[in-house]
Amino acid sequence: SDPHRYIVNLAAASCNAQDITITLTSITDDQANTLPAASVTMGLLLGDVDGDGTVTTTDFSLTKDDNGQSTDATNFREDVKVNGRIDRNDARTVRQQIGTSLL
Fold first, then answer.
1. Sequence-separated (6 or more) residues with CB below 8 Å from residue 39
2. Fewer beta carbons under 10 A from the terminal one: N or C of the chain?
């Protein structure tokens, strides 16, 4: 319902440790100005719960320390299995990703 927010569903289950680019076309503002296209690039890295571009033991510790918590605005990145709770499966997945990076 917010004309300034767009939701993009990514279907590729193997989309990890890479940059993706999303392009919107025919963008019209509230003054009827139209931009032919605008792109944004973002990096996707499974297990990078602190957002620094590398999965480290810090990411694992953050996830492990919040075991059993429901997700909220402060810890949602730690829910790597995306089920609404941070649990041992999330921590296990983060631990398996240690050493991967976007750099």
1. 21, 22, 23, 24
2. N
